[in-house]
């Protein structure tokens, strides 16, 4: 989540797409009361629901934004525009923090400490060194800790309110894969669209309960065979989670269909029902093949892959952050000096399941490792060894052994497509959700008053 120092630089992109609201007109006080010749030590520049933003807080964030823009060699907007942008981002942050409090999101001090350690490690520094670096830049440590805490809270809020709600349908995955392959790709794989009626049998059911469930499923099957509306029958008889949708399971490739179903539907014509009730551990099933189609070509998605190996040293149980980093740095020095083989070092030191293979993880596709590991790995050239990388599992020493473009297919291809689509949908839904949250907030601009 934190690759480099969390800052307001990204915030200047207008709160991830949230439009910057214009300050309200000058209040009656500003219009009718004489302006003071001396600026107050501090004042309120905005009221956000039941919270306030002070002039001191705003000025601090503005100076921080200028510093970050200077480091990035980007032009600094004129004073009024920068002030409005920074204030708007502070307002958006406030409404998110207020929402997080409403829903009970709490971040423990230990979570903040772990995040600070990751940030320092990503910058190839210890926490003490990073703290000193911030001090040199004029950034108070307490203020930085507060910002990191807020970032964690907002990330958890987004996951709760948006990301966890995102759904990607099979048809969306199919369309995405078709677009990736191109319209000229020769269709080869058959996909089946199924609907089901499930009559569940509870664990430990009596013979009478099993018999009643079977009878209920047989009744549904008879009505389906007689031409009854299968969707209506599913709503009436099915205990499955998709009953409200008429039992529609969507399109599935054969690898994603239970063998119990697959062996039967491959004998059917689309629009027909499996002629007998099927029995599984869950209960009794009535299955209809709605339609089938050819999907995809000979070629799957092409993705970049990295052949990597690593050494993992977990933190805890007597192993401190500094001890883990120092241990891996010592190993790296010896490996690069030719005094120690990486595979041997992994077998002797790594606490990962790959240790017996010399730390070899094989060819890794995007999304198959945790973000911190993947970021560090992707920056390595063939043969290069990383500095210690912090993840939720501990510290890793990573070596890239090779890079290639590889075609993936089947479930792996669909999983990658789902990840991509989920990311796109989550980003869009987050922008919409954030705009709605911002629009619903009560905001009283007092910026002009504060400048008097």
TrEMBL record:
Gene, per the UniProt record: surA
Major location (coarse): periplasm
SUPFAM superfamilies (alphabetical): FKBP-like (SSF54534), Triger factor/SurA peptide-binding domain-like (SSF109998)
InterPro entries: OMP_Chaperone_SurA (IPR050280), PPIase_dom_sf (IPR046357), PPIase_PpiC (IPR000297), PPIase_PpiC_CS (IPR023058), PPIase_SurA (IPR023034), SurA_N (IPR015391), Trigger_fact/SurA_dom_sf (IPR027304)
Cited function: Chaperone involved in the correct folding and assembly of outer membrane proteins. Recognizes specific patterns of aromatic residues and the orientation of their side chains, which are found more frequently in integral outer membrane proteins. May act in both early periplasmic and late outer membrane-associated steps of protein maturation.
Compartment(s) of residence: Periplasm
Ranges for domain PpiC: 189-291, 303-402
Domains as described in the record: The PPIase activity resides only in the second parvulin domain. The N-terminal region and the C-terminal tail are necessary and sufficient for the chaperone activity of SurA. The PPIase activity is dispensable for SurA to function as a chaperone. The N-terminal region and the C-terminal tail are also required for porin recognition.
The reaction(s) this protein catalyses: [protein]-peptidylproline (omega=180) = [protein]-peptidylproline (omega=0)
HAMAP family, sorted: Chaperone_SurA
Keyword Chaperone among record annotations: yes
Taxonomy of the source species: Bacteria, Pseudomonadati, Pseudomonadota, Betaproteobacteria, Burkholderiales
Name assigned to this protein: Chaperone SurA
Enzyme kind, highest EC tier: isomerase
Signal peptide (from-to): 1-21
Species per Swiss-Prot/TrEMBL record: Pandoraea vervacti
Keywords of the record: Chaperone, Isomerase, Periplasm, Repeat, Rotamase, Signal
EC number: 5.2.1.8
């Amino acid at each position: 989540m934190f690759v480099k120092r969390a800052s307001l630089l990204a915030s200047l992109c207008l709160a991830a797409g949230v439009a910057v609201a214009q300050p309200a007109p000058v209040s009656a006080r500003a219009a009718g009361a004489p302006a003071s010749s001396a600026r107050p030590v501090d004042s309120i520049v905005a009221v956000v629901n039941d919270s306030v933003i002070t002039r001191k807080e705003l000025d601090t964030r503005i100076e921080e934004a200028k510093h970050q823009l200077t480091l990035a060699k980007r032009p600094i907007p004129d004073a009024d525009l920068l002030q409005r942008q920074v204030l708007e981002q502070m307002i958006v942050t406030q409404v998110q923090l207020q929402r997080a409090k409403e829903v009970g999101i709490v971040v423990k001090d230990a979570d903040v400490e772990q995040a600070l350690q990751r940030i320092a490690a990503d910058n190839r520094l210890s926490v003490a060194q990073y703290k000193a670096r911030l001090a040199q830049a004029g950034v108070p440590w307490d203020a930085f800790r507060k910002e990191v805490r807020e970032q964690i809270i907002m990330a958890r809020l987004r996951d709760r309110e948006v990301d966890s709600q995102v759904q990607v349908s099979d048809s969306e995955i199919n369309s995405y894969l078709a677009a990736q392959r191109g319209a000229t790709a020769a269709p080869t794989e058959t996909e089946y669209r199924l609907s089901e009626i499930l009559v569940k049998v509870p664990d430990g059911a009596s013979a009478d309960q099993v018999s009643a469930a079977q009878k209920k499923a047989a009744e549904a099957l008879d009505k389906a065979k007689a031409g009854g509306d299968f969707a209506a029958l599913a709503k009436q008889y099915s205990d499955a989670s998709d009953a409200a949708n008429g039992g529609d399971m969507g399109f599935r490739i054969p690898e994603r269909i239970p063998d119990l179903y697959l062996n039967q539907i491959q004998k059917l014509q689309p629009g027909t029902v499996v002629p007998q009730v099927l029995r599984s551990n869950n209960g009794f099933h009535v299955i209809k093949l709605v339609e089938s189609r050819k999907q995809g070509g000979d070629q799957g998605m092409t993705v970049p892959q990295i052949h990597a190996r690593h050494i993992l040293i977990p933190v805890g149980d007597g192993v401190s952050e500094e001890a883990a980093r120092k241990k891996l740095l010592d190993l790296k020095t010896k490996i690069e000096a030719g005094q120690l083989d990486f595979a041997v070092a992994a077998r002797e030191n790594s606490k990962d399941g790959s240790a017996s293979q010399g730390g070899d993880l094989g060819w890794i596709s995007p999304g198959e490792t945790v973000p911190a590991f993947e970021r560090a790995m992707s920056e390595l050239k063939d043969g290069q060894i990383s500095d210690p990388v912090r993840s939720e599992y501990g510290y890793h020493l990573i070596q890239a052994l090779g890079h290639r473009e590889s075609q993936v297919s089947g479930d792996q291809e669909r999983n990658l497509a789902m990840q991509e689509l989920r990311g796109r949908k989550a980003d869009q839904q987050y922008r919409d959700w954030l705009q709605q949250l911002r629009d619903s907030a009560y905001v009283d601009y007092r910026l002009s008053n504060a400048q008097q």
